[in-house]
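Ticket closed. Logging final result for Toxin.
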Amino acid sequence: MGTEQTRMPFLEEVEEFLKELHFKIGFRDNVFFEDDRLKNRLALAELRDWGYTGQDRIKFIQSLTVANYSEGPKADNQNIPSQGNLWIFGLVIQSQFKKKKKLEYYIKVQLGSPDSNVVCISFHPAESPIQYPKLRSQKATI
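Final structure:
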């Protein structure tokens, strides 16, 4: 019963996940958001106050790059059946109305099963600063 260890993926692994994520969102044109979670509902209300719609969250997820990577892949031990590994990213979002107002958002996603939408478990302001590890490519470590 040890603690779960998350290994640091190589740059190529994160790039491959993002490629699959962006393709699946583009193909299905939808993301399932866990909006029954209070944090996510409050974040959605705040984004609307900032001039964004619920659909803009999909655009934010599609804009994620390797630079936004924070953690993962992590096994999903809470949802049965699992919808895939969990990946965590951070993204600074700025209000469209108050240019000096911006927040770092915590985004936890998984690809979902092959015949379903991408699943966004968390999309809310970060509760603490997000760590962005410097990723290394396999070639750079040789």
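The CA atoms of residues 92 and 104 lie 4 Å apart. No further action required.
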